[in-house]
Batch of 4 targets.
Target 1
Amino acid sequence: DTEVTQTPKHLVMGMTNKKSLKCEQHMGHRAMYWYKQKAKKPPELMFVYSYEKLSINESVPSRFSPECPNSSLLNLHLHALQPEDSALYLCASSQVSGEQSFGPGTRLTVL
Amino acid sequence: DAKTTQPPSMDCAEGRAANLPCNHSTISGNEYVYWYRQIHSQGPQYIIHGLKNNETNEMASLIITEDRKSSTLILPHATLRDTAVYYCIVRVSAQGAQKLVFGQGTRLTINP
């Protein structure tokens, strides 16, 4: 298995909802990443997990809560989001110092 | 973090070589240059990376200047399927992990 999968593909949520994004890889990668991408902009790093521990948090608001339950899974828990949080959320994985493989993304709309 | 500068858009004729430039004048000695492309809001796709030497793989070639302040991605025989946004990226080390610092990207259009 050489791909990163993300579910759901699309998500619409209200500002009071709680939802989660899921990312999975079975390539034995020990680093996993969350990025946020607004329309016509490059991806921006949010979080990095290395060996299931949070290594980097790019000053992301606490309404985004990452979780890495094991080396293959990465979740992003969402609560009390704002309309400006609407974006494409990308997950990636890599060996700790290798090239990153990206998933197809979850397109999130916050109403 | 080191940053990259790319032209916002370029055109190339199908079958010709596409040469995409990138400036990274503040890159540090141990920071790699990576190139990814993104087709119509899919996930970015890895193309190639390098540190000092020129690199070639089945997709592209990467030419890095001797002072490492700029590089060029070369797609040798562009096809319509190469139409995408191409990102020049510096990979930096931070807090025991690796970060990709994306440039603004070049929108490459391959014309028939």
Target 2
Amino acid sequence: DAGVIQSPRHEVTEMGQEVTLRCKPISGHDYLFWYRQTMMRGLELLIYFNNNVPIDDSGMPEDRFSAKMPNASFSTLKIQPSEPRDSAVYFCASSLRATSGGSSSYNEQFFGPGTRLTVL
Amino acid sequence: AQTVTQSQPEMSVQEAETVTLSCTYDTSESDYYLFWYKQPPSRQMILVIRQEAYKQQNATENRFSVNFQKAAKSFSLKISDSQLGDAAMYFCAYRRYGQNFVFGPGTRLSVLP
């Protein structure tokens, strides 16, 4: 398996523009997570999905942020309009459901390489 | 809500020496998983080691081992024979079954030659 795939790897845009980040989870994983990482705030969970359904979006900072998962193999995180303070590294991660006593691979979270977003 | 605390923002260790990174967490659950992830300058998050709360035996992966104290809700990571490639941010994380992951703020480890 190729692992979690994110695109683009780097994005530079101007304030006010729409930004769309993309993620392809590992095939068969039923959990998908979006994180944002900055020096000031560390690693923040923005939203996570289970079986394509958003479970907890309390970490989404503002209405300018939205995330979708139209099918099991694709998710997007959209920022519209973007602002300089949105500059960060955005990670997508996927996992299987953690179960008691199950295979250890059922609880590990696999991260993508991240998208470095710069909003000028 | 579960929280994960890493009280050491930065640590340093001499090459070939041993270092211990601290992690404490808060939960009312009895069954859960704990993890240590490493993030080198490449930004890629890499799983270092995992521990299942129902197992009393501490997990070990080559030079990496944990000291899991369930009653104290403590989960420290010991790196033996430190190597230059161990320099990275280290994140402690908690996961209850079927729930999302909760990450600590991270500890930046420097390895001195």
Target 3
Amino acid sequence: GAVVSQHPSRVICKSGTSVKIECRSLDFQATTMFWYRQFPKQSLMLMATSNEGSKATYEQGVEKDKFLINHASLTLSTLTVTSAHPEDSSFYICSAENLGTRNSPLHFGNGTRLTVT
Amino acid sequence: QQQVKQSPQSLIVQKGGISIINCAYENTAFDYFPWYQQFPGKGPALLIAIRPDVSEKKEGRFTISFNKSAKQFSLHIMDSQPGDSATYFCAARWGAQKLVFGQGTRLTINP
């Protein structure tokens, strides 16, 4: 079945450094990927929609200069948290859509736990 | 109008019982209603989904009931097992637009 791989699963970084999270669709092409943030015991909050070959669309209140998204190929999107601060600590999850399948569902990665010290 | 309201926030069910989680929406343009299951530290996994042209869909022990006129849909887990203990999210979407999630229900199945 369709699989979305997210890497790393966990990362700890110091304040002020940048962290890159990768999201790959392993067996299908994804023209669109979505990036979510999830706080403990809360729902998923959409941060941005990543479109292959074009600029990402950010949700209201999400700082595009802090959360840099690149979708350079049909199988890879990256989220870079720049100049990370402790309040950026969260669970980041990506999802991808297999547009080659009619009525395709969204598949989610296993998330990245970011801890900023 | 973009919201999907989910209830209850938490639910405890005895093993073998039926777990029922409800969701309501406002946007009549929504045409896809999935349910996701999420275990701690993992991403959500698609459990079952329905489109508004049917009123019910069943896959194994999981059933979605859909009431288009009331703009409500629910997940029923029959013969609930301890392994079903997880957080469940309903969601809604129209076309290729973004998925709108409910608030989540933390389900605990007592052995």
Target 4
Amino acid sequence: EAGVTQFPSHSVIEKGQTVTLRCDPISGHDNLYWYRRVMGKEIKFLLHFVKESKQDESGMPNNRFLAERTGGTYSTLKVQPAELEDSGVYFCASSHTGAPSGEQYFGPGTRLTVT
Amino acid sequence: AQKITQTQPGMFVQEKEAVTLDCTYDTSDPSYGLFWYKQPSSGEMIFLIYQGSYDQQNATEGRYSLNFQKARKSANLVISASQLGDSAMYFCAMQPLARVTTLRNSGGSNYKLTFGKGTLLTVNP
């Protein structure tokens, strides 16, 4: 079974540019989450999809961040325009609804560097 | 709101010895789950162990065990017989639990994880 994949693994962009991160969850997982870890700080929740619907986007920092999940499969997270404080590692995770433990399987992360 | 506290920024242990990584939590949710994840230098997050607040026994997974003390709100990770490959960042996390049938009606996510800042474990040969 393929795990959660993320693309790209590393992105370096200039302030003001646009970047789109992609996440492919484990096949069959309805739940998809985005998290972010800024250097030296906790991993923070950004948002949660259940299939194609946004269940909770309370962690999205501001309206420069836009997440979509086309057809309930892969998801994209767009940052436009990027700011220096957006630098960090963006993790995607997926889980199966109804799993007893709610365990989330994480992708390898995308390291975003805004210069 | 949920909060996870990991008070040890870094820990050192000799190979083959046991080590305990501390985690305390705070929550108003009646039911919750506690997780430990490992993040090696390669960056991926690896699930290690899970404990439900309603579980009567402490969780164990191979060399990993979770010392769950509900009254003290602690969920420490114990790694027995440390190996060099255990050197990594370790994160404690928690998640409120809700019945699946209420998820869509809850008005918010019941499954997001709240993480601590992590503990960097170094295993010395």
